[in-house]
Every structure is written in C-alpha cells, then in structure tokens.
Amino acid sequence: MNMSLTSIIRPFFVRRTNRLERYATQAEEVQRQVLARLVGRAENTLWGKEHQYADISNYEQFAEKVPISTYEELKGYIDRMRHGESDILWPGTVKWYAKSSGTTNDKSKFIPVSRDGLHDTHYAGGTDCVSLYLRNNPKSRLFDGRALILGGSHAPNYNLPHSLVGDLSAILIENINPLVNVVRTPPKRVALLSDFEEKRDRIAEIASKQNVTNLSGVPSWMMAVLNRTLEITGKSSIDQVWPNLEVFFHGGVAFTPYREQYRQLIKNEGMHYMETYNASEGFFGLQDDPTDAAMMLMIDYGVFFEFIPLEEVGRKDAVAVPLWGVEKGRNYAIVISTTCGLWRYQIGDTVKFTSTNPYKFVISGRTKSFINAFGEELIVDNAEKGLAEACQKTGAVVSEYTAAPVFMDAEGRCRHQWVIEFEKAPQDLKAFATLLDEALQRINSDYEAKRYKSLTLQALEIIPARRNLFNDWLKSRGKLGGQHKVPRLANNRDIIDQVLALNTNEG
After folding, report:
1. Residue where a domain terminates, one of 255, 286, 317
2. Looking at residue 103, what is its pLDDT?
3. For the chain, counts of helices (H) and of strands (E)
C-alpha cells in the first residue's frame, strides 16, 4: 500500500493536540506563566525599566504599574526600534514590522514582529491550525499535495540591513522554515510580488498545473486568484482543477459574505473551511470544531490577554480583567501583551465568549465604527477627512451620511455604498464621488491597495438622501435627539438598508 506523506507527518502534529487539552482545565495557570515569562524577559528593556518590571511578581502588580495603551502611546518607542535601537519594548533588535492601516493620525501603523513573536506566536498558530485540522479529519491527505498560500509584499525598513516592513503574510513567507517550501506554492519570488494583478495571474498559471490540497489566505484576495484560475483553465469549478482540494484556512475578514460564493466555486461536498484569527499583532484564535463558529483562544503563544467591557472602552478609568475574569455573552475589547513588545495594547477588536471551558469566542466587531469587509480597514477618521477634502474642492456641504459594503455580486464585484444628505449638493455628484474615492486612497493605504485597478473594490457609489432622511431614521428607532448619532460606517448592511428603505418615503 502506498504510504502517504500525511500519514508519516501526522504523529508530529498529534503530540501538540494532546497538549491543547490543558486549555480546558489550566487556562489561568497557563496565562499567569505567560505573563511571568513576558515580564521577566523585558525587565532590562527601556520600557521594562520605566515601568519597574523588576518589582512585578504577579498580575495585580502588572496591572497597577503598566498603563493600557493604544498605538499612539507606543508609536515613539516603535519608531526608535525601526531606526535600529535595541532593548526598547523587547530585548534585542526587532527587524520586521507588519504594516497595517487605521490610526487616526497616521496613514499606517507599524507593528513590531520580533523573532520570538514570529516563532512563539505566528508560526505556532500555523502549526496548531494543521494539528487541529488533522485531528478532525483522520483521512486527510493534506501533505500529499501543495499548500497554496497567499502572501502580501514587503519593502526595506529605513534602508537598515535585513530590516523589512510590509504585510504580515509577507514577513511570514520570508522567514518560513525551508521544509515548508517543499509543500508550498507559489515560489517565494512570486508570492512576494508587490503588483497584485501580476501576482494573481502568475499564481493561477503555476498552481493550476499542480496538485493543490489546501488554501490559506484572506477570502477576498483568494477569490480573485480562484476566479482567475477558472478563466485560465476554462473549467467551471475549482474542484475540476484541483480534485484533491480539501480545506481553506481563512482569516483577515469575516467569511460570512463569501461563504455562498465559495460554495459555488468549489463544488466538492467534502470541502472544509477553518477560520483563524491571525492579526498583525499576533495569532489569537482557531476554529477547533468545524460544527462551531466560535474560535478557541490560544493561550500559550507568548500573548497575555486582558479584556475591557465594551461599555468602558474609551474611559480614562477603564478597568481590564484577565482571562479568568471574563463572563460569557459580554462584549469585550481585547488588550494584549506580547513577545513582540506590545504592552497592555488595545488592538481595536471586540469579542464575545461563548464558552470558558475552554475559552471560546466569536469576533463581535471593532471598538470603533469601520468598514473592513474586504481588508480595507476604513475608519471614521478616514471618511471624515475624505469628505472634507471633496467638499472643499466642490463647495458641497454634507449634513449626514452613512456607508456600508456592497458584497460581491455575480460578477465578483464589490464596492462601498454611501448615502449622503447634502446641506448643499455638489453640481456634479459623479465628480464628488471620484474626489472622495481618491482622497480615501491617499489617506488609507489598505483602501488604496484594494482599489488598485478595481481588482478587489470598485469605485464607491453615492446615493443622495432626501432632506431629513437621517432624522426620520433616528425617529423611527426612537432615537431622535440627545446623544444619539447616525452610525457613520458599518461592516454590514443592516443600517444602510433601513435608511434606503426610508429614502423613498417622504417621512
């Protein structure tokens, strides 16, 4: 009988799944150990000395001495690290920085990725992903073919030797274990191309001739590659190109809008989908049970977790609770301390726990209004600045607005839809829309990337609102007046659809 490569490799992964059993019974102990290790390692860094890490021996002292921070508070330290200084937030020199957008003052933020963070967190997450998948699928032939892994691109960081800044996925591919390259496609030189159109075409060309058994990447980007693969091969579904395809490991954006489209693209009944929560800041969660949408919190990766009840976010006196202090069913903002030198750092995501034995959660949103349906990470600050610029250039005046995604239609196209109530309408609505779109691209690098040649995002659409539309909407919800505001951006269509329904009625 032919021995499959998967059956040879499987035992190495099984060992780890046995260790994951303690997540259910020893979570507090594991997390306290992680914190002790983090504080001990960082004792002699600039940050460690400033916050008296040498005197910290438990969680309570840590919470007392170290403030909860956002990117703004850590930015000065990170910039020193990017210029080559060592022992700032984490021991040694950190050479890699994951670039992500979205702070109020900056086009991009740069998240340090230390060697420890790379191995203890990000690669550990990748390994566990495979371990759990193999545990749930004993007949898998995962390693008997290729893994199609989509990555971004990177660039030199301040021209320092061997120092890179770019997408987290590119940093991961750049530093990956050479053994993984045996089962991975496309080759590194293609995977790291910066022009996505070229990369998409090259990947489709190469991978269509290979035996691909698994996919990893962001659903919106992967969709573009799969559609191109069908165009090149002339096939009507992906399982005709890759009959042994069995799983898509996905993360980065919510999968819900894409689920049906993937079902249409991949007709194989036995196809599996496994969600991961892998952010620039760390690898936090894995879907360990295919029948449960909740993900298991990965508690031994060099990340110490705390949680702020959502209603307290933004308050100066907000109190975070450790993992063993959370309650099921409540919304919390995540706060992390990591082997990359992020200390009590708010990442902006909110979660809701569905289980505490082990700790399992769903991502419930962001702490602020945003659109991130396709990885564009558009925040309200971006929207306000873009509108101000378009108004200034056209003489228009905006009184109210809301925006939301239009998920991919049959042609695979998606866009943002804006409903805007003008106090003073622009003479040319189309020109106003173009100016707004261009401004958003200048302000937000992730939005710019998704709009590139309209590959992921089409140009935005503006629907003019009748007078008093938003007041009428607030009124219909019993929220007219007081502190109630029209939500500016939403990642789903609930609000915009209600608003549009009212736009046809005169109140």
Report:
1. 286
2. 42
3. 18, 21
Q: What is the mean pLDDT of residues 281-296?
A: 95
At residue 161, φ and ψ (nearest 5 deg) are -60, 135
CA distances from 485 to 73, 323, 500 (A): 28, 33, 17
Alpha-carbon distance of 71 to 78, in angstroms, equals 9
List CB contacts of 263: < 8 A, sequence separation 6 or more: none
The mean-pLDDT minimum among 180-184, 241-245, 306-310 falls in 180-184
On whether both 34 and 138 belong to a single domain, the answer is no
Q: pTM of the full predicted structure?
A: 0.78
- Please say which residue of 343, 366, 389 terminates a domain: 366
Q: Are residues 135 and 269 located together in one domain of the fold?
A: yes
> Which residues have a Cβ under 8 Å from the Cβ of 338 and sit 6 or more positions away?
38, 117, 121, 281, 282, 302, 303, 304, 345
Residue pair 111/281 in contact (Cβ under 8 Å)? The answer is yes
pLDDT tens digits along 248-261: 999 877 777 577 77
Residue 207 in any domain: the answer is yes
Local confidence band at 320 (pLDDT 50, 70, 90 cut-offs): very high
Using DSSP's 3-state secondary structure scheme, residue 419 falls into: strand
Domain that holds residue 443: 370-503
Q: Kind of pairing, strands 247-250 and 212-217?
A: parallel
One-character DSSP codes across 155-167:
EESTT-TT-EEE-
